[in-house]
Specification:
Elements (H helix, E strand, L loop, with lengths): L1 H15 L8 H4 L4 H20 L9 H13 L5 E2 H8 L7 H13 L4 E4 L18 E4 L1 H6 L7 E4 L6 E5 L6 H5 L1 E4 L4 E4 L4 H12 L15 E3 L12 E4 L1 E6 L2 E6 L6 H13 L7 E4 L7 E4 L6 H11 L3 E4 L4 E4 L2 E4 L2 H42 L12 H12 L12 H8 L3 H5 L3 H23 L1 H16 L8 E2 L7 H4 L4 E6 L4 E3 L6 E6 L4 E6 L3 E6 L4 E2 L4 E6 L8 E7 L6 E6 L10 E2 L8 E8 L3 E9 L9 E5 L5 E2 L6 E4 L3 E12 L4 E6 L4 E3 L5 E6 L5 E5 L3 E5 L11 E6 L6 E7 L4 E7 L8 E2 L8 E6 L5 E5 L12 E4 H4 L2 E2 L6 E4 L5 E5 L32 H12 L1 E3 L2
Parallel strand pairs: 8-17, 26-31, 41-46
Antiparallel strand pairs: 1-3, 2-3, 4-5, 6-7, 8-9, 9-14, 10-11, 11-13, 12-13, 15-16, 18-19, 18-20, 19-23, 21-22, 21-24, 22-27, 25-26, 25-28, 26-32, 28-49, 29-30, 29-33, 34-35, 34-36, 37-38, 37-39, 38-42, 40-41, 40-43, 41-47, 44-45, 44-48
Helix pairs in contact: 4-5, 5-6, 9-12, 9-17, 12-16
């Protein structure tokens, strides 16, 4: 340091003399290698060990440990001002008062160790706590029980040597995993997610029993979590968290739970930003959050709620991913371990702490028994009289010791001088009122306690299990899991993004884009879509949506490209070169390289497309081929059915149509789908439809087939089997809808307080209809979609009488089919204990009518109940539904 000061002084002298600092730069250099080598390493170590990373022993960072110790020292059962606790904490380390208050608020908001009073902020809304002079705190009963035990606590001097503070608090609970921890140090960080209180106790018990266990996070903000890639909380793991979004009505979504790491304010801001960017469409947002979250998202008319929910997950903070990183301090060193190992170490440490407490308790009880025995001998044998004539203190000690010796053979340790001194301190009043029976009872109770403590020490694992069970019973109420664990389905942004812009095409010049407003409108699209383009020379290209892109002159077809689309089939007839034959082919385009031009012909120069159609459901039309009159050609006209042509890859050459010159090709008959009806399954884990064979098979669906949905609220509706559809948790029926099959329902009529039964049919269309009464006390008892359902009624047993025999009812004969709004017939006037659904009567279902056109609903379809708003949308729907056909 002295060398550095000398160099700086010399530099200043040179500058004052008018010399430029650039003239001799070597003399102005200051070497700081030593500073970085020592000071920076010291600083990094300090931040890691003393500020950012919690200790494995008690789960606290140093500031948190000092706060808890201060609360214990101030504890008198009453609330203390947080400002007072902050000031008391600063006696142990000069943390900033603001940082201490913030750390204390974070502990208090976790509602585990601190009993709070006043405005401590709101983790749901993000509101901050009031100033520390306004809010109060005291230790919770749980904190007092599991965190403190002064007799087994190791102490150290505070920073100024005036106070003693704990090295680690003797926490007898996996507190680190219950509260979680997050911190950024120098060169490393930690992010331990909070876990469920009850599940941690259960896992500790399983560990003590030698059983395996798994731990997954649980968040105070609730929400839905996917822990598939949690990786035990180690580096490289990831969990996905989602808000719980439900459909309140056809134009309103309600968010009742939010993801961890967000609050209602930030969540609403992210929705508004996505709306401004055109990713989603929102009419209005209402935040009714108080004690519980309630955010109402109002949608414009014609917007699909299901698609909007997916869009909220895809483009807003309604879904986020969290990467855990298990880093803790052990033996003054950072250590990266998983949550399973953390819990094992915490549980083992708890057992050791319980053992030390029992050993201290045993020692104290044995000391009490020893002195109580001495006291009894001393008084019962009147040994205190032996000291009456002694004149010196040494003589008193010897006299008592001599008097005790004949009676101390049963004692567990030798009598010390300290014991004798304590006997001399017994008051005369106590000797005069000494009760031999009570003394014996006291000794016996001490012996029982000693025996019990020894038993606990011999069966330490069972004692620890009982300890954890007691914690669960005493403090576990209301601490059930809040976050629902579910496997998430992957949401493709291109399938749920709102079509926020319009795509145009200039066919002759070969441009496509969103800025060509004077040219031909193609379809609505989003700025993250890809578009596929086919040109008259047999070329194809996929490119990103942009304001204006050149793709090639003579554009035949433009559409939004769907990756891995095996259903859209392209029918093509082309002439190979100037004099080559004409070929026909059918193909799919499932994957391509963006902005690469693909040749769909045989590759000869001057090839030309004679006929082209794009068919979203594999339609195969019939076309008429007309040849030019040349030479002795006999057949100038014939029909070709594309259904006879196999679907192959886009690079296939195709089949020869003719080697003669084709005059034109005309469409003779629109095509029907050549694809089989699609099998659809319902996966109850992610509550989504799929075509991959996961879950329960719902059936084979054609283009006009619908799904029947019935909920516990008594609502029935039919919907298209769109793969992006969402299903509420209260759904009780999901099946392929048969319009001829009646629905049978038994419900409690709240106004008349009777069970009613009804049978009805519902109409097609995405329309929800309530089929029970609107009385608030009405509820659906059971519903059946069997052709001929049977029910059984159980009756309660009257006092002193035999129960009435069960009664069966043939619902088909009991009531005829009526309208969905009909009240139905009263089932019975007597009280009913249970109504059970029996096996239905045999019935042969009528054969389904053959559909004129076999097609399958694709997941790209928009809400079936929404009507087109303008002519351009109708044009888009026509193009997508029937295929675009170009004639030459």
């Amino acid at each position: 340091m002295e060398e550095n000061e000398d160099l700086n002084e010399e530099q200043n002298e040179n500058l004052s003399a008018g010399e430029s600092p650039q003239e001799d730069t070597s003399e102005a250099l200051t070497r700081v290698t030593g500073m970085y080598k020592d000071w920076f390493l010291d600083y990094a170590s300090y931040v890691i060990l003393e500020r950012a990373v919690p200790a494995i022993e008690d789960g606290f960072k140093p500031v948190q440990r000092r706060i808890m110790h201060s609360l214990k020292e101030l504890d008198d059962g009453r609330y203390n001002k947080v400002a007072n606790v902050v000031g008391h904490t600063m006696q142990y380390h000069p943390h900033g008062d603001a940082s201490i208050a913030d750390a204390m608020v974070q502990i208090g908001q976790k509602d585990l160790l601190i009993d709070t009073q006043g405005n401590w902020g709101n983790i749901l809304t993000g509101d901050r706590a009031a100033a520390s002079r306004y809010i109060e705190a005291r230790l919770s009963k749980f904190g007092l029980e599991v965190v403190f035990s002064p007799k087994i606590t190791e102490w150290q001097m505070s920073y100024d040597g005036r106070k003693k503070e704990p090295v680690n608090l003797p926490v007898k609970f996996p507190l680190l995993l219950a509260q979680g921890a997050e911190g950024i140090a120098v060169g490393l960080s930690t992010k331990i997610l909070p876990h469920n209180f009850i599940e941690l106790i259960d896992a500790s018990i399983k560990h003590l029993k030698g059983q395996r266990f798994k731990l997954f996070p649980d968040f105070p903000t609730a929400g839905i979590i996917d822990v598939t890639n949690y990786n035990d909380g180690l580096r490289g793991g990831k969990i996905r968290v989602r808000a719980r979004i439900a459909q309140k009505d056809k134009n309103t979504l309600v968010i009742n739970e939010i993801p961890y790491g967000t609050n209602t304010s930030s969540l609403i801001d992210s929705i508004l930003k996505a709306n401004d960017k055109g990713k989603i469409k929102v009419k209005k947002i209402e935040d009714n959050t108080a004690a519980e979250v309630e955010i109402l998202v109002h949608l414009p008319s014609g917007i699909s709620p299901d698609k909007s929910i997916d869009a909220l997950y895809a483009f807003t903070s309604c879904e986020s991913s969290i990467s855990p990183l298990g880093c803790i301090i052990e033996d003054n060193k950072p250590l990266f371990i998983g949550v399973t190992e953390m819990l094992k170490r915490s549980t083992d440490a708890t057992v050791e702490l319980l053992k030390r407490e029992l050993e201290i308790q045993l020692n104290e009880l044995e000391e009490q028994w020893h002195f109580a025995s001495l006291e009894r001998i001393f008084i019962e044998n009147r040994i205190y009289r032996d000291i009456e004539e002694e004149e010196t203190w040494e003589g008193v000690i010897k006299a008592i010791d001599k008097g005790l010796k004949p009676h101390t053979k049963h004692l567990k340790r030798a009598v010390t001088e300290e014991d004798i001194v304590r006997l001399t301190e017994i008051r005369i009043k106590r000797i005069s009122k000494f009760d031999l029976d009570k003394a014996q009872q006291h000794l016996e109770s001490l012996e029982e306690k000693i025996t019990q403590v020894k038993y606990h020490l011999e069966n330490l694992v069972e004692f620890a299990i009982d300890y954890f069970n007691n914690l669960k019973t005493t403090y576990g109420k209301g601490r059930e899991r809040k976050s629902e664990i579910r496997v998430f389905d992957d949401i493709e942004a291109t399938k749920v993004v709102i079509r926020n812009t319009k795509l145009y095409v200039n066919r002759e010049e070969g441009f496509v884009g969103t800025s060509l407003r004077r040219d031909e409108y193609v379809t609505d699209c989003s700025d993250i879509d890809d578009i596929i383009v086919f040109t008259s020379d047999g070329k194809m290209m996929v490119t990103k949506v942009d304001s204006k892109t050149f793709v090639g002159k003579g554009i035949l077809h433009v559409a939004v490209f769907k990756k891995k689309d095996k259903r859209t089939t392209y029918n093509l007839v082309y002439k190979d070169g100037k004099s080559g034959p004409t070929y026909i082919k059918r193909f799919n385009v499932t994957s391509v390289t963006r902005d690469k031009q693909y040749d769909l012909t045989a590759g000869s120069a001057n090839s030309k497309v004679l006929y082209f159609s794009a068919n979203p459901n594999g339609e195969a039309e019939v076309v008429t081929v007309n040849l030019r009159q040349a030479g002795s050609i006999k057949k100038l006209k014939w029909d070709i059915d594309f259904a006879d042509v196999l679907i192959k890859g886009r690079g296939s050459k195709g089949n020869i149509v003719t080697k003669y010159t084709v005059k034109r090709i005309e469409l003779k008959e629109k095509g029907v789908s050549t694809l089989k009806p699609r099998k659809i399954w319902f996966d109850d884990v992610v509550r989504r439809l799929n075509v991959d064979g996961r879950g329960e098979l719902l059936g084979e669906f054609r283009g006009d087939d619908l799904l029947l949905i019935i909920t516990q609220k008594g609502i029935a509706k039919t919907v298209l089997p769109v793969l992006t559809a969402r299903f509420d948790d209260d759904m009780i029926v999901l099946e392929k809808w048969n319009p001829l099959k009646p629905i049978s329902a038994i419900y409690w009529e709240g106004e008349k307080e009777r069970f009613y039964v009804k049978r009805f049919l519902i109409e097609a269309g995405n329309k929800e209809e309530l089929f029970i009464s609107e009385h608030p006390k009405s509820y659906l008892e059971l519903v059946s979609t069997d052709w001929r359902p049977m029910i059984e009624m159980e009756f309660p047993k009257p006092r002193g009488k035999e129960a009435k025999e069960n009664q069966t009812v043939d619902v088909e004969n009991f009531i005829s089919i009526k309208g969905i709004k009909a009240q139905g017939n009263q089932l019975i006037t007597e009280k009913v204990k249970n109504i059970n659904l029996l096996d239905p009567l045999p019935f042969e279902e009528p054969e389904e009518k053959e559909a004129a056109e076999i097609e399958v609903v694709d997941e790209e379809n928009v809400d079936s109940g929404a009507k087109d708003d303008n002519q351009e949308n109708r044009k888009e729907n026509d193009d997508d539904g029937e295929g675009q056909i170009t004639l030459f």
